[in-house]
Amino acid sequence: MKKIILIGRSGSGKTTLTRKLLNMSSDYKKTQSIEYCNNIIDTPGEYLENKRYYKALLVTSLDADAILLIKDVNDAECYFPPGFAYMFNKPAIGVVTKTDTGIENIESAIRCLQNAGAEKIYKISSYTGEGLDDLRNFLEYL
């Protein structure tokens, strides 16, 4: 798998996705700082929620081959500004998480990620496993 950086709001499922992609157990604590786990860079949600941390995301992304923008389907807010992904100058992939709980909000989450600059979008549920294999396969050949 290529090296990726996960960017999303607090509670959007970044750490859970990291652990599922690496076939690790699901017990974990809240991400307090940037964490490197094999080929995945997991960022705290506060780095997206507070614009003064955008520079930290930009610098950290230099270590990555691709950007994963993570959006919780149940979160009504879109914290990704239009064109957000273009500042990284790397492929940006959108991931809508928790699809097993908010099917009626999927289109809104997809629009948010498309407006942010995601080139391709995956819909996943870490709980049921839906979409994880497709995302894993894509990341293998990115």
Automatic annotation (TrEMBL):
InterPro entries: EutP_PduV, P-loop_NTPase. CDD domains: Ras_like_GTPase. GO terms for biological process: biogenic amine metabolic process. SUPFAM superfamilies: P-loop containing nucleoside triphosphate hydrolases. GO terms for molecular function: ATP binding. Keywords: Nucleotide-binding. Pfam families: PduV-EutP. Belongs to the EutP/PduV family. PANTHER family: PROTEIN YOEF (PTHR40453:SF1). This is Ethanolamine utilization protein EutP.
